[in-house]
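Apologies for my clumsy wording, but can you show me some protein sequence, whichever is easiest, together with the matching structure tokens, please?
=====
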Amino acid sequence: MAKAAHLSEHVLVHRFPNLGHRVRKALSKLISKGYVARHPTRNEMTYQLTDIGIEECRKMKESALKLTV
């Protein structure tokens, strides 16, 4: 949940083996909805949660906690 964290696409794809295409598709949807921002770097594109994305993550976490209680 670090606001300044930037991850490259290959890091995200590596976390979900055999789902590379789905990860890329989901990432493009998150970008189009404004939850994730793209940041060009020298070697590759990196991605970061926006303020809207962070707030949505908080809401999802709170609702998940309510379900477990």
